[in-house]
Amino acid sequence: MESKQGKFKKMLRDNGIDGAIVSSPENLHYILGFGGHQHTVSRHPGFSLGVMSSEDNIQTHAITMDFEAPTFIKKNREHNHIIKPYTTWVGVRNWDNLVNNKEMREPEFKNSLDVMLESINEMGLENKTIGIELDYITVNYYSILRDSLPKAKFVNISDLFVYSRSIKTKEEIDIFRQLCSVADNAFYEVSKIVKIGVTEQEMSQCFKEHVIKSGICVPSPWSMFSTGANGARLTIPEDGIIKKGDVVKYDAGVNAAFDFYTTDTSRSWVMEGASPELYQLKDRLYEAQRLMIKMAKPGLPINELFNIGFNYVKEKYPIYKRGHLGHSISMGPATAEAPYINSTETRPLEAGMILAIEVPCYIDNFNGFNIEDMVLITETGAEVLTPKTPHYL
To answer: What is the CA radius of gyration of the chain?
Structure first.
């Protein structure tokens, strides 16, 4: 996968930042074009990390455990980073030395911090402004950085990563097309089994099986399939069974595993025998979401997009309340990230944004609705990336 470090280096320069220590698995992948196994599994600061200068002519250093360094070297063939290992407890041996019981010449022991500080010094960043991910690293790790680099000025770059990730490259858009297609096909299969008597677990299992068949992603573990009152609260599938008059709601996605990209889509289906008011509410929510998608285009302030959907629902239901009607989405681990489609976000829509545009309504201890699609902002408007699954059965 292509590295987005050139794009991010420019953002560092534009913000007066000389370099960065990249700590989170997802942002390390964003910078390098690949990520670390143990780092992704443990999410422990320091298992793998990147040290980068804001200058284009200075190579980024990718630091990882000695056991994984050969994998980084292999993945780095398509890139131009410097791979630097640190010493661990794994104890990889040379075959000839092992079978002949010969002592090996051991390399100098260096931990992750030692190697990182070497890289900082090699780039001349020890007394410069360094960006760090304060939204990710622990207080203890931050204290270690401050003690180890007393002359450096640290600034938080977590928001810069979120901002950069909000505008997708062509390769990222292609990835989302694939992921959304898999999710959409799986949701479509779920729609074919929805009827009175089907359980939440059966819907969830149907979705999981069809996602896994794709071979390119996995079901997001938070995926929710619910019916009736269960749809009005945050919960994974439980023991609910679809009954006459229920609203069947799902809010679910897929995840590209070690490539991090994720999706978020919802449907709400009103079962036969429901009160006319439920059908009318569903129609209003759906019409509001379709209106938002129709009006979305580059240059439209995001708060105006919010008002389009919110005011349409509120015109019929004056006490309707909702903090946002969608969000950007990229690499996780959070599904929703800035910019949020809310009443205060004045940032304009830009081509290359991928948004989950949603119009929910939750009714305590009764039923829940969410109408949500993955939407790409194009040069001229918007394209729905999850069009296959019907909004009405």
So the answer is: 24
Residue 107 has pLDDT above 80, yes or no: no
**Co-location of 185 and 155 in the same domain:** no
245 and 256 Cβ atoms separated by less than 8 Å: no
Confidence of residue 252 (pLDDT cuts 50, 70, 90): very high
> Has residue 391 been placed in a domain?
no
Pair 13, 106 in one domain: yes
Instruction: Answer whether 51's CB lies under 8 Å from 115's CB.
Output: no
Nearest to 227 by CA among 214, 241, 213: 241
**According to the model, what pLDDT value does residue 94 have?**
80
Q: Give the pLDDT score at 92.
A: 80
pLDDT at residue 323 in the model: 97
For residue 143, give its domain range. Answer: 5-164
Q: What is the CATH number of the domain that holds 194?
A: 3.90.230.10
Question: Can you give the pTM of this predicted structure?
Answer: 0.94
Mean pLDDT along residues 219-240? 97
Average pLDDT over residues 181-197: 98
Q: What is the pLDDT of residue 89?
A: 81
Do both 238 and 293 map to the same domain? yes
What distance in Å separates the CA atoms of residue 232 and residue 363, rounded to the nearest whole number?
6
Reported as a single tens digit per residue, the pLDDT across 265-277 is 999 999 999 999 9
Helix (H, G, I), strand (E, B) or coil at 219: strand
> Does pLDDT of 164 surpass 90?
yes
Q: For residue 59, give the amino acid letter.
A: Q
Alpha-carbon distance of 26 to 40, in angstroms, equals 8
Give the chain's domain count.
Answer: 2
Closest of 158, 157, 142 to residue 16, by C-alpha: 157
- pLDDT-based confidence at residue 128 (cuts at 50, 70, 90): very high
Of the candidates 208, 245, 252, 207, the residue with the CA atom closest to the CA atom of residue 367: 245
Same domain, 175 and 288: yes
Widest CA span in the chain: 82
Q: Do residues 64 and 142 share a domain?
A: yes
Residue 210 lies in a domain: yes
19 and 83 in a single domain? The answer is yes
**What does residue 137 show for φ and ψ, rounded to 5 degrees?**
-70, 160
Nearest alpha-carbon partner for 85 in 104, 95, 71? 71
Q: Which residue has the tokens 């200058």?
A: 55
Give the CA distances from residue 290 to residues 97, 171, 341, 368, 375, in Å, rounded to whole numbers and listed in that order.
Answer: 68, 27, 15, 19, 11
Residue 90 CA, chain-centre distance (Å), reads 31
